[in-house]
Amino acid sequence: MFHNFLVTTEHRDFLRFLWHEDNDISKPLIDYHMNVHVFGNSPSPAVATYGLRKAVEKAETDVQDFIYRNFYVDDGLISCRTSEEAVDLLVRTQRILHDNGKLRLHKFSSNNREVLDSFPQSELAKDLCNLDLCNDTLPMHRSLGLSWDIETDRFTFCTCKDKKPFTRRGILSVINGLYDPLGFAVPVVLKGKLLMKEILSSTNSLDWDDPVPELFKKPWDVWVQSLTELEQVCIPRQYSDHSYTDSNVRLVHVFCDASKDAIGAVAYLQLFRPAGPEPTLSFLLGKGKLAPNGGSTIPRMELCAAVLGVEVADIIKEQLGIPSECFRFYTDSQIVLGYLTNTTRRFYVYVSNRVKRIHSASSPRQWTHVATEQNPADLATRSVSATQLSNSMWLTGPPCEILTKTLPEPLSCFPLVEPQNDCEIRPEVTCIKVQMDDVKPVNHKIGSERFLRFSTWESLVRGIKILKQFIYTFLKQSDIDSSEAY
Predict the structure, then answer these.
(1) What pLDDT shows up at residue 340?
(2) pLDDT, tens digit, for every residue of 287-320?
(3) What is d(CA 399, CA 322) in angstroms, rounded to the nearest whole number?
(4) Which 3 state secondary structure label does DSSP give 369?
(5) DSSP alpha helices (H): ranges in 344-389?
(6) What is the mean pLDDT of residues 446-459?
(7) Which of 188, 342, 352, 393 has the fewest CB atoms within 10 Å distance of its CB?
(8) Longest CA span, the chain
């Protein structure tokens, strides 16, 4: 795609390279420069994205929305209500890109055979070009890194069968080979990351290609072998049988949890139809992170999980356009709920910054409590095996009765938990105001004008302290009454 966009003449010298004249290695090297943007150059993706959007800036709204919101560089992914609507959108976009930018939109793939039949074989994806669409089974397709079974319209995983060496580099390669942008397999992947963390922290003296001690080999091999079970996990591409656009109410439920090892957050979409059947609940997005090496208490980890929850919510707001008031947040930590609903006490910096981040994306009234055993995010913090993932609460969601009864509760239901013993809460400071009585003679008054002689509060306090010490010493050495002395 990058070769479709010319480099301006004055910038071509930045893309110079040396090669033999006339591509003949017997001839001397000469200077060449690229006239088009090339792969491997950092600005190329941004230039291509800008050019793609520029080509449709005067197009219809739906075409602009398709290019602006549903393209990642040169790959587009969109869902339409009917095959006719999909074909119409693609044909119009194809024509506009060609007319305005000489860009060819092709390599189409779809789970609907009517859409595929609407385009010539040369316009279809490479693995669909030679198929008999009437009789052949549609193949597995890679879409933005995900394995998409077109025939069943489900996402699945394709794990690498190549055996990696048991070295630090090989371990990192296996972990990074699991591409899971939506977080379907977070509880499984975090188990591997925990093992990797333990191995790397115990082998700091080893080089990246040195063999790792056999002590860690057995648990690592068990986990790697379990990854093949991920190929049996299938997640429907559709959120629900209900139409997303026809749903009159859309709610997003975000669950958060933490342990000493990891934090996790997962979101589910609940769709309601007017006068229709029961609402549906579907997996939306999940994320998990390992805990830092030290210095984090469980309340701090629970608060970080809540921050991760609002970060997940921000992604969903941007991508699906769901308003903030349609989100509900759940945590099993009473301490975190006390932090979020507090209006009377102040926190130290760590807690204060994270509470501020959560308040910037949600209201305290959107947060409520959920029992640990009913919290799907708990699975991310203690991990599950690949064989258990399909039927786990992580993918299926919590019981529906939890979502119907946990409405926003009064803020008074979540007070601070033992604030007198919480090291994250600043101690209360009592301020006392003293007012001088004008009835007494003027010479018995200290006079606030004397405070002007001090440049700082500390020096004023120090001066008052010295004065009191002097009065106390004077009283011990004389028979004057203390009231007369003051």
Answers:
(1) 93
(2) 999 988 876 899 999 999 999 999 999 999 998 8
(3) 23
(4) strand
(5) 349-361, 378-382, 386-389
(6) 81
(7) 352
(8) 116
Q: Residue 350, class by beta-carbon neighbours within 10 Å (0-12 exposed, 13-18 middle, 19+ buried)?
A: middle
Domain(s) labelled CATH 3.30.420.10 in the chain stretch across: 240-421
Contact 372, 330 (CB under 8 A): no
* Residue 486 pLDDT > 60: no
Tokens of 397: 């969601």
**Residue 394's closest CA among 269, 268, 307?**
268
pTM attached to this predicted model: 0.82
State percent of the chain over pLDDT 90.
Answer: 45
Whether the pLDDT of residue 87 is over 90: the answer is yes
* CATH superfamily membership of 240-421: Ribonuclease H-like superfamily/Ribonuclease H (3.30.420.10)
Q: What is residue 151's predicted lDDT score, i.e. its pLDDT?
A: 85
Q: Region of 191 please: left (phi>0), alpha (psi -120 to 50) or beta.
A: alpha
Of 25-29, 46-50, 273-277, the range with the lowest mean pLDDT is 273-277
Q: Return the SS3 of 476.
A: helix
For residue 223, the tally of other CB atoms under 10 A from its CB is 20
